[in-house]
Amino acid sequence: MIALDGKSLSVLIEKEIKQEVEKLNAEFMYPTLAVILVGNDAPSASYVKMKSQACERVGINSLVFAMPENVTEKFLLQKIEDLNQDSKVHGILVQLPLPKHINTQKILEAISPLKDVDGFHPINMGKLMLDLEGFVPATPFGVMQLLKAYHLDVRGKNCTIVGASNIVGKPLASLLLNAGATVSLCHILTQDVGFFTRHADFVFVGVGKIGLLQADMIKEGAVIVDIGINRTDEGKIVGDVEFASVSQKSSYITPVPGGVGPMTIAALLQNTIKSAKNFAKGLK
User: Is 118 an annotated catalytic residue?
Assistant: First the structure.
């Protein structure tokens, strides 16, 4: 079994991004990411802090707009529009989840597709589906880069995804299809998830349930990508895969933490630089 080390790969990617930032700075272009955080959700605040720290490491300007839980949808939409019009801002993301009184889809659609570095806007989602140039959601983007770094080719292989979210499962399915894989996408109504995972060369799991994937649910030598992030009662961070037993049967597996998580942050930084370059080209 070989661990897919996303942490080490993310460090290499950050070094490349830092060099890209220095080149842009030399041309008086200063990549800037604006993050909107609504409410007091502790995990969300933690994620935003990690993103800001990553921006600082590579030289990307990070603007965090923290808003109270009871902020109105109208106010939030106006802030997004202000950022859309701000030529100094190249990337905009709204940290999810949002409070229930706010229409999440409406908020995501308000972000300019040109600054949608999270890749959640319907236009970018549609481009991904059609294999056209656009912004790809950071977690699936990071997963594909991790596989590529270890020369794990999905072309012609059976890939099973457990979890059909708009943020991970669905866009990952599109990326795998575009790469030539045969994809099975399991969700809450799937009657026998094990049937699909046992026939898969690659298994991707991201639903937020501790111990969901067990050793008897995979075939010998399968590649396992654990996208889940959970906290145990003891405070330990674990994924959705029962690591101890599954790792004995798999050929490659991502640890949690240290696997997909760092790659998600790295991919977000890459999207931000991509956006800044696009705007720089438009200015010339």
Answer: yes
| Set 79, 95, 115, 270: catalytic member | 95
Which segments within the chain are labelled E, that is strand?
2-3, 32-38, 61-67, 91-94, 158-162, 182-186, 202-205, 223-226, 230-231, 237-238, 252-253
The residue annotated as part of the active site, out of 118, 201, 226, 240, is 118
Phi and psi (nearest 5°) for 175?
-60, -40
Q: What is the mean pLDDT of residues 150-179?
A: 97
pLDDT digits (tens, 9 = 90+) for 161-174: 999 999 999 999 99
Question: Please, where are the H alpha helices in 130-192?
Answer: 138-149, 169-178
Cα dihedral 69/235/55/45 (nearest 10) = 10
Pick the catalytic residue: 5, 51, 170, 226?
51
Q: If you write DSSP's letter for every residue of 42-99 in order, what string do you get?
A: HHHHHHHHHHHHHHHHHT-EEEEEEE-TT--HHHHHHHHHHHHH-TT--EEEEPSPPP
According to DSSP, the residues that pair with 67 across neighbouring strands are: 38
Summarize pLDDT for 243-266 with one digit per residue, the tens. Answer: 999 999 999 999 999 999 999 999
Contact partners, residue 65, CB within 8 Å, separation at least 6:
34, 35, 36, 37, 79
Q: Phi, psi (5° rounding) for residue 69? A: -55, -35
Domains of the chain: 28-112 (3.40.50.10860), 138-261 (3.40.50.720)
Please state whether the predicted TM-score (pTM) of the whole model is above 0.85: yes
The answer for residues whose C-beta is within 8 angstroms of residue 115's C-beta and 6 or more apart is 83, 84, 89, 90, 91, 92, 275
Distance, in Å, from the CA atom of 144 to the CA atom of 281, rounded to the nearest integer, reads 27
